[in-house]
Amino acid sequence: MYHRDHIAGTVVDILSDLIWSEFELIGIQDPVIRNLYADSLEAIDPISTFPDLTREFLVLGRTVSSMIFDKQRGIFKDLICHDPSFIRLTPIPIQGFDPKIDLIPSPGMRDFVESEDPRDVDARKVLPEAYIEAVRMASGSGVGMSGSGLGQQSGGFGGHGGGFGGGGGGGDIGGIPLDPINTLFLPRKRFNNDYIGTSLYTRIITFWALEKALINATVTSARRRSRSVLHITAG
């Protein structure tokens, strides 16, 4: 619908690009803390990154990302945006808690972390070692089955010096439990129990179906009229 409807797709593009522009931090009195936030925002570059997240938020109804923490500088330095198709969400039936989020490594990601291609090897240098190891574990025997968990790895992916997943293990085989501390989960919620999120396009599905049927019928009629005409003289 986003790619083919000239109105629905354009509306999402306008909403996604229009709301992000130059900004400055205000309200933080401590210059040290303000500099930490400023350095994080400069590294993440929200003006370039967030329009795509907004587009995903509106079209799919949710966006899931992991923030990479730089222990040396004490800031979040980058985002890893996850494909929602490879995210497993399990609700927690208590108000105020996000659902449990497990990352299922995609075939492309599994091939990437195991690739010996020099281009892939060079690209992997920007990723935390804990992230690469977590993907390898999930691709093999599973994550969190040993009880130690990925959250206890040193120099890892979490915001408190932990690993990629939540501390203490847990999680099903083949899934990487994402740590809520450094996971950016934004659902487009319409109801209190809508923990997954709802696409902006949900309300226009009926009109899209009617429009698609009308277009198909028009194309079919045009093709029939463009065929050659056979004249038969009888008698």
| Oligomeric form | single chain
Structural class designation: alpha+beta
Poorly predicted sequence stretches spanning 5 or more consecutive residues = 141-163, 166-173
Q: Total strand count, please? A: 6
Q: Summarize model confidence as the mean pLDDT.
A: 81
Which descriptors apply to this entry?
single chain; 235 residues; three-stranded antiparallel sheet
Outline:
With 235 residues, the chain is α+β, with helices and mostly antiparallel strands.
What does this protein structure show overall?
With 235 residues, this protein is of the alpha+beta class. The chain has a domain at 84-183. It has helices at 8-18, 31-44, 46-60, 107-114, 118-123, 129-139, 205-225; strands at 62-70, 75-82, 87-90, 100-103, 176-177, 183-187. The strands form 2 sheets. A 3-stranded antiparallel beta sheet has the order 2-1-6. A 3-stranded antiparallel beta sheet has the order 3-4-5. A hairpin with a 4-residue loop joins strand 1 and strand 2. Helix 1 (8-18) runs antiparallel to helix 3 and helix 4 (107-114) crosses helix 6 (129-139). The protein is elongated.
Topology:
Blueprint: H1 8-18, H2 31-44, H3 46-60, E1 62-70, E2 75-82, E3 87-90, E4 100-103, H4 107-114, H5 118-123, H6 129-139, E5 176-177, E6 183-187, H7 205-225
Antiparallel strand pairs: 1-2, 1-6, 3-4, 4-5
